[in-house]
Write a structure and sequence with these properties.
membrane, 192 residues, single chain, 8 helices, endoplasmic reticulum, transmembrane, RTN1-4, Reticulon
């Protein structure tokens, strides 16, 4: 994750983080009420209304003041926005790497290469059936965005206490997993 994204999530610049957080939440809440097509169309209309109004305002202002400043968006119109072949290749390589890694891991889990890992995956999928019954995907996305903008700050302020409790939980989980592995035949983990 880039430094700019980390600064955004840790609220280093409160105005910028607040603007991004509220914009993303507004978009997600809009998607709970309207279709993606409607939200996209409304966003495009809002942007067009703002730019057309600004362009007309600047044109009238130039006519009244008898100045020749030119097009108000000239700097943006002249900016290069094309992706280079290197950028496309870099991102395509990353997507290919992640896709292949994901497919290998899913193959390993579904074909039970390691019984314990496949059982963990089965328990996770079983728990996700309950999560899916309670929440839809958009609600989970909203919760994820809220968590992304709140959890880092909370952790930063209360790191010692959180680390202490996470350590206790990790010890308990490892103890239970060890007991389960000892009772399941063929579930002994290889030495790491």
């Amino acid at each position: 994750m880039g430094a700019a994204a980390i600064d955004l999530l840790y609220w280093r610049n409160v105005k910028q983080s607040g603007a991004v957080f509220s914009s993303v939440l507004l978009l997600l809440f809009s998607l709970t009420q309207f279709s993606v097509v409607s939200v996209g169309a409304y966003l495009a209309l809002a942007a067009l209304s703002a730019t057309i109004s600004f362009r007309i305002y600047k044109s009238v202002l130039q006519a009244v003041q008898k100045t020749d400043e030119g097009h108000p968006f000239k700097a943006y119109l002249e900016m290069e926005i094309a992706l280079s072949q290197e950028q496309i290749s870099k991102y395509a390589d990353k997507i290919l790497l992640y896709s292949n890694t994901c497919m290998r891991e899913l193959r390993r889990l579904f074909l039970v290469q390691d019984l314990v890992d496949s059982l963990k995956f089965a328990v996770l999928m079983w728990l996700l059936t309950y999560v899916g019954a309670l929440f839809n995907g958009l609600t989970l996305l909203i919760l994820a965005v809220v968590s992304m903008f709140t959890m880092p700050v909370v952790y930063e302020k209360h790191q010692a206490q959180i680390d202490q409790y996470v350590g206790l939980i990790r010890t308990q989980v490892n103890s239970v997993v060890g007991k389960i592995q000892a009772k399941i035949p063929g579930a002994k983990r290889k030495e790491e």
